[in-house]
């Protein structure tokens, strides 16, 4: 695995994936800017997060609550019988060990309880060169295929920070019950390019945030693919984020479809307005179409952060059309007015249910004490809408 040199440390900090947000800004001075109002079809279940420090899940150990330095993030939800199952990430103060993944269940999608005795179901590996996920495991995506649970996740590796920054790659694990996981390793056929800057290839800044669907015997794996917009990493915005696709028959050995992302930013999210592109995909197949949801990064102040969620549809899983823009946005959001991200959508009868992460954290203004006191909101929200025949 390659490494990032010091000259790109600032750009790597801007990559940030879905675990952090940049400072809140008002970009109305950008040319062509129009306020984002959000969708009228999607309804917020609550003006408050359904999961955060103020609304923790049942069964949360007191020690875990005390040591948490962020709130619940990156939901991955499926309906299993009468219950919803969620896999989500949570970070603890543990000498840089980063983020772990937990499993929760709910009868209604709103009130959640922790499984596995309140302990993580997947924790970071060891801090060594052998482990690709020693700094943290995050953005879980769980699907079930042939009675086996498959977990795809972002892996954080610490490659000597003095010589570079954190590398973001992808890992895979399997389980018979969704709780006890066996690591299958890094998806090296896709992630070998991460950190290799020469030629500015897709993925050298990050290949991460995987989302999978199993359809007609094939695993389709969508992931965020990040590189510089220009070879010299100049220009505006500096980074560009697309959604790439790889397929597999066994869920572990993937082959990328083409050499470019299958989804690049549309005119609605044009770079001249500060948009970098797509991140944190979520996908399912409704029996007729692949339904893909993504969040979008936008430049603001000294960083970039996710400010909108959009929806795309495809008949073949490769060629997508834009169906909904700005489903949820930060503008006017009751609690997540800095970042909205990481959508997870379940079709349950005649309703669509979308869980998403968000926050109001401004690192220029806020400190950890602001998070602990509740002055900053970080958590998971829920929005729903009716299923429509054309979507």
Name the overall outline.
globular
What is the average per-residue confidence, as pLDDT, rounded to a whole number? 85
Taking the sheet with the most strands, its summary is: 4 strands, antiparallel
Helix content: under 10%
Q: Calculate Rg over CA atoms.
A: 19 Å
* Alpha-beta classification: mainly beta
Count of runs of 4 or more consecutive helical residues: 4
Unreliable runs: 1-37, 160-164
Strand ordering within the main sheet: 1-20-19-18
- How much beta, percentage-wise? 35-45%
Secondary-structure element sequence? HEHEEEEEEEEHEEEEEEEEEEHE
How many strand elements?
A: 20
What's the assembly state of these chains?
A: single chain
Termini separation comes to 41 Å
Concise description?
By secondary structure, this protein is mainly beta.
